[in-house]
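[[Encoded backbone]]
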Amino acid sequence: MLDYDEVTAFLGEWGPFQRLIFFLLSASIIPNGFTGLSAVFLTAIPEHRCRIPDTVNLSSAWRNHSIPMETKDGPEVPQKCRRYRLATIANFSELGLEPGRDVDLEQLEQENCLDGWEYDKDIFLSTIVTEVGGQKFV
């Protein structure tokens, strides 16, 4: 069986070209490391909830109660991926009914986020998620 040094002997000795290539490739480690770490900041998922289009005619009370609430670590927070059926709450708003008083919100039908999401911009102004995830894909 041949030794590694015997098999690679035709390549030549460790000369200036090999040293140059070695150090240039070694220098690329630093930018590659930054690229890997940038994903931590660019792919963060900020707090979000379903978008309610401005074109829907809702009273301010129904706009404030259009997202179902869930208990998360103690306090109640808006659900991230569900909303009350938009046609239903628009009809209740048009009739002048008040959420929680005239209509039991627990009994309303829910739907997925059909119009994208609204993102909290307190921590991150822009991430991959807010730029691409906020759009509605057909």
Summary: The longest helix spans residues 29-42. The mean pLDDT is 86. The chain is about 35% helix and 15% strand.
